[in-house]
Amino acid sequence: MSVRLLIEAAGPAVTIQDEGRFGLSRYGVTPAGPMDLGAYRAATRAAGADCAIEVSLGGMTLRSEGATLCVAMAGGDFDIRLDGRPMPPACLLPLADGARLVLRAGPSGAWCYVAVGGTLDLAPTLGSRATHARSGLGPKPLAAGDALMLAEAPAPPLEPMALAAPWLTSSDAPIRILLGPQGDYFTPEEIEAFLNARWRIGARSDRMAYRLEGPAIRHRRGHDIVSDGVAMGAIQIPGDGAPLALMADRQPTGGYPKIATVIGADLGRLAQLRPGEDLSFRAVGWDEAVAARRAYFAAIEAGVTREPLGAEMTTESLLAENLVGGVVNARD
Amino acid sequence: MDDETPRFLDCGEAALSVEFGDSVDPVVNARVLALDERLRAAPPAGLRETTPTYRALFLRYEPLEISRVALVAAIEALIGPAGVEASQPPARWTIPCCYDPEFAEDIGEAAALLGQTAQSLAKLHAGADYRAYMYGFAPGWCYLGGLPQALAIPRRVSPRGPTPQGGALIGGALSLIAANPMPTGWYVVGRTPERMFALDRTPPFLVAPGDAVRFEPIDAETFLTLDARALAGETVARRETLL
After folding, report:
1. Considering its fold, how many domains does chain B have in total?
2. Chain A hits for B19, Cβ within 8 Å
3. At what angle do helices B26-41 and B68-78 cross, to 10 degrees?
4. DSSP code at position A215
5. Strand pairing partners for B93?
């Protein structure tokens, strides 16, 4: 019997992502992959999935057809409803045959991952299912009317569960950066100004880049460099002085000086900021960045906690609860 | 700054740029490609991927598996004195290219700006030996060093409309083969029927960074014949092994 996921509605930039298309940057191929790797891993590992639907602020409605599916969600604080019943923003649930799941932007967060247990019948392109819309690699962005076929669906959970993980909690702490690689294109005063400023995520931000609104950052030595490689989280200062944080869909190389790079442990936090939200940066050294990275990935490997949702439980009561439960190993 | 010791620049805690210079220069690029070859031949544990660019090698690594200090030491052990380590092109591609104005939309405009005729521009472009310095911008966009000085041309202030697929472009001191239609500030001076990037072909990419490249002039009729063959999956550019 065929099992399908029917997309009944999808906002712009709702895409399929796996961890990314690596190994071909030497041929100009962007890795793409999830904007928030920690949330992606929480959802995919809870559901037993090898890719996920990355839902944007535009939201998504989907329906199961043909079987009860195991679905996990994690990411920003989205408004999630299962046949009208509110669910916590990170959850694992059985999606009964014909049941409808609605995701809408909630109080905070920009991306939510919907992982469905089993294997989506999507052929990899250059070794990956990640969508990179600009170069046309991977599945097209999802739209109303799309149907995703599913093979080898695992047994769903008996009841909805809330998922909790420390790295999914939002925080106002400054986003940590390592200065460089082109720190020498800026005077110490301009670097200070960059670090002391309060920045706002600009409206035209997307999977390619987040625009940072604030003071103009001036270059000491001109704004053209000979193009070189670009890491996710690189903060590029183009000619107009308005910084761009380069994200998952960035070009593989770039020709503007990069004042700093967001550390791996804070990329997901940056990604979950919405246009209009504020942030600041704090410079750290390599050792501190690596210690943060070690703690971040160790937490992800240790797994999320699951707590059954009582029949009367609402999002509000869940928020009031201190969610504790059996630790589920990420490799289960 | 193009001295012998490269600069090691952090791009976050999990990527490093090994910078050999700050200009587009064949000697600098040859050092980038030489280090790329050596690291690919014997990658240190924890090294994930290398991306050669004009003047720097970009490395993605896992700092929980190899420290920055250990990675830098491994790289330094692979770097010899400048000049000694310059890599040789492993292969040479001969790429058919039509310079007929029908396929080379900007050749008249570029020739006028350079004080050339369309014919002399085409002759200079097809007579040069190029090297694939890097890919960038989008999949299959291959940037070539070796453009004759007489064809160096400032890029347009604002981009022209999308290039044709397979456009042979000039801009600055470089030539470029554009794999797919995109707006660009470069000048389209020819077009190849070869597909620089084709998902339905194995391998999807033909020219490797570091390969030598020549253009072979073809007329419009030959372009159409080769274009049909390329679309059917054939590789119409020719590859010779040099090493």
Report:
1. 2
2. 181, 228
3. 110
4. S
5. B213, B239
**Can you tell me the mean pLDDT for A96-115?**
96
Instruction: Note whether B51 contacts A: Cβ–Cβ < 8 A.
Output: yes
Any domain includes B2: no
Mean pLDDT of chain A: 91
CA dist., res. A113 & res. B74, Å (int) = 39
Q: What does R_g of chain A's alpha carbons equal in angstroms?
A: 20
Alpha helices in B42-103 (DSSP H): 68-78
* Segment A282-302, tens digit of pLDDT: 999 999 999 999 999 999 998
Identify whether residues B139 and B232 lie together within a single domain: yes
Cβ distance of B64 and A22 shorter than 8 Å: no
Residue A24's nearest CA partner among B191, B72, B25, B138 is B138
Query: A134 in contact with B at a CB cutoff of 8 Å?
Result: yes
Q: Which of A259, A222, A230 is nearest to A246 (CA)?
A: A230
Q: Best residue in A253, A261, A284 to probe B by mutation, most B CBs within 10 Å?
A: A253
Enclosing domain of residue A107: 3-165+303-320
What the block records as the tokens of A220 is 């000491």
The ipTM assigned to this model is 0.94
| H-helix or E-strand spanning residue B222 | helix B220-231
Pair A55, A192 in one domain = no
CATH number at residue A204: 2.40.100.10
A232-276 pLDDT, tens per residue?
Answer: 999 999 988 999 999 999 999 988 999 999 999 999 999 999 999
Report residue A94's pLDDT band, with 50, 70 and 90 as the boundaries. very high
Q: Which residues of B touch A290 (CB under 8 A)?
A: 13, 63-64
Output B221-228 pairs: Cβ under 8 A, ≥24 positions apart: B222/B96, B222/B98, B223/B96, B223/B98, B223/B100, B223/B103, B223/B191, B223/B193, B226/B96, B226/B193, B226/B194, B227/B193
Last residue of a domain, one of B56, B78, B100: B78
Q: Give me the phi and psi of B64, to 5 degrees please.
A: -80, -10
- Same domain? For B98 and B155 the reply is yes
Assess B83–A contact: CB distance below 8 Å, yes or no. no
- Answer yes or no: do A178 and B10 touch at CB < 8 A: yes
Q: In this predicted model, what pLDDT tens digit does every residue of B197-235 receive, in sequence order?
A: 999 998 999 999 999 999 999 999 999 999 999 999 999
Same-domain check for residues A184 and A221:
yes
Tell me the whole-structure pTM to 2 decimals. Answer: 0.92
What range does the domain containing B155 cover? 91-241
- Out of A14-18, A194-198, A227-231, B23-27, which region has the weakest mean confidence (pLDDT)? B23-27
- From the CA of A287, how many Å to the nearest CA of chain B? 8
Whether A249 and A207 have beta carbons less than 8 Å apart is answered as yes
